[in-house]
Specification:
By secondary structure, the chain is an all-alpha fold. The protein is built from seven helices and no strands. It starts with a helix and ends in a 12-residue tail after the last helix.
């Protein structure tokens, strides 16, 4: 009886995979123009260079802000009462730098038409790190403290959980940050 159930589940899985493949093939055939245009955009050099800048900013903010946030979280963790109150404050307060910094007009792109491309690129990365760093730092501190206090999981699982959460937060913040530049990656490309 067990072999019959295993065989029918394998048959069902194969049927579902075949149906999904047929559905994707039909969609691709009817939307051929869309796929051609998507491949043309993805293969464009300007698109890829701006995407590279976006990824570099995201990775640097994740490493710098996340590392400092975890270090701050380990410092807060020394006192249990301070750790619990920090979690409650950071639950809402981690977004404060986002609202304060991003209301400032200094993040707007300045006149960069006369600068060298490398100067423009480095200034974009530097301003991106300065703008997104505090929010990611406080987010990393919150993720670390909440993982240690609320989930009570081991060090190895905490590092993966915090790294994943910090990278996704940095990805969101850097994607929003690209709105402020005249050549922001997905928005004004």
């Amino acid at each position: 009886m067990e072999k019959l159930n295993l065989w029918s589940s394998r048959k069902l899985r194969t049927g579902l995979q075949s149906g999904a493949f047929a559905f994707i093939t039909i969609i691709a055939l009817f939307n051929y123009g869309f796929f051609v245009e998507a491949l043309r955009v993805v293969g464009n050099r300007a698109f890829l260079s701006e995407f590279g800048t976006f990824l570099i900013i995201t990775i640097l903010v994740s490493v710098i802000g996340g590392g400092l946030g975890v270090a701050l979280g380990k410092l807060f963790e020394l006192n249990d009462c301070f750790s619990r109150s920090s979690i409650r404050i950071l639950h809402v307060g981690r977004w404060l730098p986002f609202f304060v910094f991003w209301a400032l007009p200094i993040w707007r792109a300045s006149n960069t038409k006369n600068d060298l491309p490398i100067v423009t690129w480095l200034s974009t990365i530097t301003v991106g790190i300065i703008a997104a760093g505090p929010t990611v730092l406080l987010g990393a501190c919150y993720y670390y403290l909440s993982s240690r206090a609320l989930l009570k999981i081991g060090n190895r699982r905490i590092s993966f959980q915090v790294a994943r959460s910090v990278f996704l937060l940095a990805l969101l913040i850097c994607l929003l940050f690209m709105l402020f530049f005249e050549k922001g990656w997905p928005w004004r490309w």
